[in-house]
Specification:
alpha/beta; Rossmann fold; 9 strands; protease (chains A, B, C, D); homotetramer; 2 domains; nine-stranded mixed beta sheet; zymogen (chains A, B, C, D); GPR endopeptidase (chains A, B, C, D)
């Protein structure tokens, strides 16, 4: 694996936040030119906004554009009030992103729900499309009667190539030619590189999406470059692989030990069992290289990507690099699809009063 | 309602068999020119084949072409062996229809599943598409490796306009332009005009289909004329309206009385209760106009379409002309979708040995 | 069929309202002793309350007790605000019924959802049970921590005999012995005798229920007599048979003709086509026996039950007496299950503030 | 945590095979008294049979009885022929287990499907119950007509306590008292301690089951001791936690390094990237304690349970010990439920000829 391949490989995450984190872990602050990162707390929810400038594309491994995330990790499953607040914050952020790209209230929109509706953790796109308020047919069939406080919106779930035999990009492209929307919104389930983000974060971006990009096939990107109109993508990481889980855990383990040693000044062997208080680990909790070596040997001092590569080599050939999803995926998908479809409806139809 | 509208209205049935029956009930045999009707019994199942010539189109109210039906009324729900036999007969008939239109084994096919997969009696198309064996992506991505005993097939369920905001025809047309198949197979759930056919018959035709044609909207037909390639349609009547149920029953009632009188020579009033033996009624069981009047008054002597129109006038304005489906629709749809998808796979991939 | 059997047969409706209507159609007002009927309009919804006294049981063909209905026919599918109003009215009426039987706020409840969750129009019970707030395990496991503003509630969907091999009554009885609730609430999908009520009415009663009682099997009733505790039943008619549809329509037809003649003083033959205005028919619209005979012959003058019996004899032996449900059953069941489960939760937990 | 608690904790696996493996890893061969282990290969599938004698119960942490497993890891998803072979082997092994406990062909059976049918990886029990052939109602209602080549079988899915408010054991116990079966078969989804077994193994045992035993609540066991009749349990591990994934991977990592060093005699640092050939690791691949320390520090020389405990302490307090299931859980559950229900039907009805 040469350096270029390594770089590509590093970018496998579907989440810009993770890509930037990777980079931050590897380069010093000074080299952050071309990446603007902002963090905010809105109604108790963490919102981030990353702008990647063209000159930083190669370094970050993400296309130039704006990447926003909404952290929903504090929301309890099926907790109606919390979900409503998160939905409102999501709608606001999405509206901001649309305005950032000068989308007007009269611009027409096509919503595309990617993914396979028979595979629960991959069904986010089709589930959202089911709940999007569509109006294009009313504009077409009854142009004089239609309530123009609603934007002209259409929506389709084009299925997955393995079920249709057709490249998803091709379905979208032919549809865009026919429907001629002013902009596209694509909704998809993503892969995360961290167990902590699965079903806990919504990403919005104006850079489009590359369907199934992580899987190794060269797929055409669904973006402004390929389609000629702005393409917004909404995604939630719903799966994570065993490599990420293990890599995360080793990282936590080192920080846990580092933090405990700092606090308690005692050797690891005596630490079992640790206290069971909730911990938040930061990079500063990482112990010294000597301690890392003591506790985790050479593995303890591997760089992030080296560590992942090593684990991948052990798991992948034996078919053990399972891509997994939380046991409660059914209810979590319901909540996420409701949140996103309601928020999307609000952002797309800003002149409509929703109850 | 002028005569022309009446004619249109008469043709509301999605089934050619019903359209021809209507006509047969109204016109004498001599006028049957341009309609060829054949009936066969294959492995215990009734198969019909109707050829409508261009000169008969106006009279029948159906497009010129071939209409085949497979009567599955003898099959018991979830009876695996009977379903397998019916599937094989269906595959054979469909193959004959493809050959009738000179479809070659190397011709490429796009399968379109019409209907709404969230409305059980309307989900036939999407359910079949889910089980169709698709290969087009393999021909595209790995042309040298693909097993060419499989035909190049792709498949998509484009949803319904109320959910997508896009005319179904437009989705199909844009896809046909992109995928460029040699022929199209469209699968859809139909409306029946008779309670006896609901979920009990499969129609195959080479004349295409007009999505939602019965509902009153002008929709573009999905056919060879509009798309430039042969369009085969496979349909099952899964719903029936209250008008048809009532009209059927009044008809049965008259024939029942006629038959009983013939057999037992006694007056109706004494016939209650009738024997409960299974009866098959034919047009010859219809009693004389005088007896019809005696038992059912003026209604007893209405022409079929007059009767339907009268009933419709009573039910429709009050919202009582319910479109209904059998209570067991879930299991019946499963059986039908399995039968049709397996049969379609056999007809599309004749060189493949299915177990 | 002797008179006693006839009487039994007449009572096949699951709805007391229909049973009383049948009776009202047959007997004069004076003989209504023992039946108290009240009608009310609450927030735009028609609510009825029928009390059947023990002395009227034989005449009405319904057990003694209170039968309340909520007419939801004005609600549009998926119309959130209307559904919320109806849910609140339902919760109030159910609370009144519980109080009518002296159910205290601390009495424990077992909710039973009858029906087959794989048969959409029969899934009401299981769907409601899924959304009932249960607390009994918290009372058992953490008696000191449980929020006692919630009643102690448990819930189970015992399946149907054809799937379990066990009489539903037996499952319920064994569970009641174990769980020892103070009262039972049973939720079930019902059969209607009228096309106008399918999915349009909720019945609440304190007389329990006889599972599948209409189908001809002798099944043990789930009621206070058999179980020793009050048994409330909540039901919605979700299916109707072809006999009812035809009988209804013939009835509408006669009234339609009668009304039209009165209004327009012209003969039937000239009435085609009638005006398409929405009509509400009452018994006073029935034309004279002579006119009935003129339009519908002997059938026009049959008593309701004679007419149904005649139609049944014609349809049933040929397998054409389909039990049907509206095409939109999937979405209508969703709405009904949400309405009933939310209303039930409010009625069972009156001290809880629901958002 | 004292030694006794540690012992309990070690036995958290639902799989006897894993419990025995744990033990084998800790104790020498000589101490294996009371545990008989047999392995066989039938039609290409690995079958194991473990007999735990009463004297070994404490050591193994599993109840005395027979534990059989069928390894289905070689089966490709939806591969019909392979699934059929596995189903037949499963049916044979289950029949052997029934005979081992002297179950007669005329003994009556109650099948219980544990789990939550709305949580895909927990729905195995309800899914199997849906496909079990039940006959008890026919024996009850039509004793003279019933086809006695079928065993008297009933089946129920009692739901989960969080949905019903009733201890699952209580539902089962009350049902057993009522139905009085001669033996019980309980089907449930299990938790695995190894990523390699998820959805890849079926366990059959005559020792019953403890519902949700791993979750920490004291639940009554569903077994012969509590119910007075033989209780057979069929289970598939469908979930695994992040602790197990990480622990497994660290183990693989050490063995991978050990094996590579042996084969290639070079230092680890130079091993990146390793070859990507499929590897099977055995305990002999574990490198020396010194090398383990070199590569993985103190963690490399932790005992299995110490390692799991350490990882658990890091992940659990932060909510990161996700219980996960493979992304393809929907299709894998379908295959497993079909395999088990068909196999169970064959084992329960040995005199019936299945096609």
């Amino acid at each position: 694996m040469n350096e270029q391949e390594m770089k590509k490989w590093q970018c496998r995450s579907d989440l810009a936040l993770e890509a930037v984190e990777q980079m931050v872990g590897q380069v010093n602050e000074a080299s952050q030119e071309g990446v603007k990162y902002e963090e905010d707390n809105i109604k108790g929810l963490k919102v981030t906004c990353i702008d990647v400038a063209p000159e930083a594309v190669e370094r970050v491994g993400k296309k130039a554009g704006r990447y926003m995330t909404l952290d929903t990790s504090s929301i309890i499953t099926h907790e109606h009030d919390q979900l409503t607040v998160a939905m409102e914050v999501f709608a606001e952020q999405l509206s901001k992103l649309l305005k950032h790209r000068d989308i007007k209230e009269t611009d027409t929109c096509l919503v595309i729900g990617l993914g396979n509706d028979h595979v629960t953790p991959d069904a986010l796109g089709p589930m959202v499309v089911d709940e999007v308020i569509v109006t294009r047919h009313l504009y077409e069939l009854r142009p004089n009667e239609v309530d123009r406080s609603y934007r002209e919106v259409s929506a389709l779930a084009p299925g997955v190539m393995g079920m249709t035999g057709i490249e998803t990009y091709d379905v979208i492209e032919s549809l865009v030619k026919k429907v001629k929307p002013d902009f596209l919104v694509v909704v998809d389930a993503l892969a995360s590189r961290s167990i902590t983000r699965v079903n806990k974060m919504i990403q919005m971006t104006d850079t489009g999406i590359a369907p199934g990009s992580g899987v190794g096939n060269k797929r055409k990107a669904v973006d402004e470059e390929s389609l000629g109109i702005p393409v917004f993508a909404i995604g939630v990481p719903t799966v994570v692989d065993a490599v990420s889980i293990t890599s995360d855990t080793i990282d936590f383990l080192l920080k846990h030990i580092g933090k405990s040693l700092k606090e308690e000044s005692r050797s690891y062997k005596k630490l079992v069992p640790f206290s069971s208080a909730r911990q938040i680990y930061t990079d500063e909790d990482l112990p010294s290289p000597e301690l890392r070596e003591q506790f985790m040997g050479q593995v303890g001092n591997l760089e992030e990507e080296e560590k992942r590569q090593l684990i991948s080599e052990v798991l992948t050939p034996n078919g053990y690099n399972l891509i997994v999803t939380p046991k409660e995926i059914d209810t979590e998908m319901e909540d996420l699809a409701t949140l996103i479809s309601n928020g999307l409806n609000r952002a797309l139809h800003p002149n409509v009063q929703f109850s």
